[in-house]
Amino acid sequence: MVYSYTEKKRIRKDFGKRPQVLDVPYLLSIQLDSFQKFIEQDPEGQYGLEAAFRSVFPIQSYSGNSELQYVSYRLGEPVFDVKECQIRGVTYSAPLRVKLRLVIYEREAPEGTVKDIKEQEVYMGEIPLMTDNGTFVINGTERVIVSQLHRSPGVFFDSDKGKTHSSGKVLYNARIIPYRGSWLDFEFDPKDNLFVRIDRRRKLPATIILRALNYTTEQILDLFFEKVVFEIRDNKLQMELIPERLRGETASFDIEANGKVYVEKGRRITARHIRQLEKDDIKHIEVPVEYIAGKVAAKDYIDEATGELICPANMELSLDLLAKLSQSGHKRIETLFTNDLDHGPYISETVRVDPTNDRLSALVEIYRMMRPGEPPTREAAESLFENLFFSEDRYDLSAVGRMKFNRSLLRDEIEGSGILSKDDIIEVMKKLIDIRNGKGEVDDIDHLGNRRIRSVGEMAENQFRVGLVRVERAVKERLSLGDLDTLMPQDMINAKPISAAVKEFFGSSQLSQFMDQNNPLS
User: Boundaries of each RNA polymerase Rpb2 domain copy (predicted)?
Assistant: First the structure.
């Protein structure tokens, strides 16, 4: 039996049938620890004010002749204590002072030659402080910042459950959600073509993203399909046999080898037939010439004598085309392996509806979709695409997002870069196609494992970063003006945008709620 003592030393007897195993946790610690992380100096720069400053600084001028660097920050002491703030109707806060360094480079000298360095401590507004009860005193009233439950960053696979299209066909989609940056959606349409959307804008064929990543049609097909190899020997067509691929198909001709018929024409190929073929180690079978008609070429075929492209990758083969290939000396022909069961031709079909054929045209298409009306240039299109998913300034999955992303794709490591890589995008497309082929399950987006808590420190950091980005634009313009010799760091910084962002968050945001105080007289 568990005994506890009150201040009067009277024994409290527990009549519960089950013993108390765990103590009740200190629930306020979520708020207190989170805010402490926000204002505490983090030497690695991963959390709080330190992370916000490091993400924005150093700020360089457009010419590159000067830059404003961040050194450190310190929080001063609050002017009044909590009680005094409530009586006077003011905010319980501490002044934020930041040490900044203005570096001016020599214009004519080699790059990196420093002309002058000025260091100064600059006032950057007030940061409201948390009381011991996990509350804030804003303009004399006690307020609480409520934690937010939001969708965790990462990759999520989902379906419309047949509600979008009138036929009731289930359309699958995948969504890559970053902590900061553009959303990337992949989705199937009713014709089973795969499309991509960036930030929920107009959809484009998904292969445009792959072309923008510098993949050719041949490389795209190589990534997503297995190959069926045909060889022309003595004017006869032979196919390299992988018996397992024939399972479930109806034989359109007698399957025979070494004078023995394994499957008669018109019969469905069963597991027994496949076992027999594997047991006898049959590697090649002769097939009628008509069998190759309608198959899709896996690569470009060029006439080596003339250099003419006879058959581009992803083109359907015909008997005339086969004759041309044979005449030009191509005795080995690779085609895509597809079937109606678990190897759909989705990417091959998508390449056909893709209006682009090289990297530049793909980048221009993405630019037109993101910036309609603006004339695209090569530099602008490359810069836009690079900044969407591959720039650490504009895109961040966060540690949680990367961990969820890697887990979803069944990778061993849970850490990695905050930006996307080519492999990330390709693996998401492969898994979505596997789900469409019936190999895999979609995620439950309502499951709490796919959500996370965003507490006060994290939200305050985001708001502070918003204020800093506004200041960054003004500082860049100021640095680009002449007469830097007489200017000091404090002349560059206007603290009002930062104070306004912080004030708005703590004072009037939806998550800043008035603290319930019970009136003892009521």
Answer: 151-234, 345-454
User: Which class would CATH give 151-215+350-451?
Assistant: alpha beta
Does 444 score more than 90 pLDDT? no
Domain layout of the chain by residue ranges: 28-147+455-514, 151-215+350-451, 220-340
Token pair 């009138």 is found at: 166
At 1 the pLDDT is: 47
CA distance 140 to 261: 92
In 442-488, where do the E strands start and end? 451-454
User: How many distinct helices (H) and strands (E) make up the chain?
Assistant: 15, 24
Question: What is the edge-to-edge ordering of all strands in the sheet holding 332-336?
Answer: 284-287, 236-240, 227-233, 332-336
251 vs 285: CA distance, rounded Å:
13
Strand partners, 260: 257
Other CB atoms within a 10 A radius of the CB of residue 146 amount to 15
Answer whether residue 6 shows pLDDT above 60.
no
Burial (0-12, 13-18, 19+ Cβ within 10 Å), 174: buried
Identify which of 52, 40, 41, 27 has the alpha carbon closest to the alpha carbon of residue 144.
27
The predicted structure's pLDDT at residue 165:
79
Three-class secondary structure assignment of 170-189: CCEEEEEECCECCCEEEEEC
- Cα–Cα distance measured from residue 282 to residue 242, given in angstroms and rounded to the nearest whole number: 9
Q: Which CATH architecture has domain 28-147+455-514?
A: Alpha-Beta Complex (3.90)
In whole angstroms, give the CA distance from residue 186 to residue 465: 30
- pLDDT for residue 2 is more than 60: no
What kind and span of H or E run contains 201?
none
Strand-pairing partners, residue 204, are 196
Residue 468 tokens read as: 């800093």
Q: Where are the alpha helices (DSSP H) in 328-410?
A: 346-353, 359-370, 378-389, 398-408
